[in-house]
Design brief:
This protein has about 60 residues and is mainly alpha-helical. The relative contact order is 0.18.
């Protein structure tokens, strides 16, 4: 998810995206433990997307 895409979302949508990404991250971690994950880079990308959204939320609050 790119910065431009995130900026277009409302605050509520951003918060919903964070929750969805956290659930995905949780599932990816279990898949990694079980050796089922096909692309380990998904974990890193998910973490970065969560951080991007949180950063933009903080910028709007300031």
């Amino acid at each position: 998810m790119k910065k431009k895409e995130i900026k277009k979302l409302t605050r509520k949508q951003q918060l919903e995206n964070i929750e969805k990404l956290k659930k995905d991250l949780f599932n990816f971690r279990f898949q990694k433990i079980n050796g089922q994950i096909k692309s380990p880079s998904k974990i890193t990308e998910t973490k970065k997307n969560i951080a991007r959204i949180k950063t933009l939320l903080e910028e709007k609050n300031a």
